[in-house]
Design brief:
Layout (H helix, E strand, L loop, with lengths): L1 H24 L7 E2 H6 L1 H4 L3 E11 L2 E5 L8 E11 L1 H13 L5 E11 L13 E13 L13 H8 L4
Parallel strand pairs: 1-2, 4-6
Antiparallel strand pairs: 2-3, 2-5, 3-4, 5-6
Length: 166
Amino acid sequence: MRRAKASVILLLTCLTVAAHTQDVRHGTSSDAIPLCEIIANSSKYDGNAIVVRGQYRFVIHGAILMDRACSKIDVNLREAPGYKAEKHASSVLRTLTKKDRFQPVDVILRGTLHVAHEGQCFGEMCAAYEIEIAELMAARPAPPENGGSAASPSADTLAHESGHVL
């Protein structure tokens, strides 16, 4: 009986660790802070290691991190010495951006935030913020900007609303 209980406890422990690993790999890490929250509290995070969630996008001579919730802010990205990427996340990023180089990709990154001081800016866009990326932890396709809904109502919807059902 003791052996069975010990086996069950060991199995549950292994499943919990495996589930947490899957969460980090697929971008559901509870440690990740949305980019807009980091920017809103940038003085608190300046110079500190962070785990951030946002949308990665290539630009002409580099990459930025953005968030639709604070769409006016772009954060310059720069790889840190010793940069590493989780294999699955790297593969997803490569695959998605191969089709459209400038397409945004949802990512979770670990790195250090830097805030520009007077007369300073980062990258080609002269951004006020930069994240020195230590690790790409997760990547997945970004949802459509309109949330997956049609850009305009369908003909069936318009006909029904006007009372002229086809």
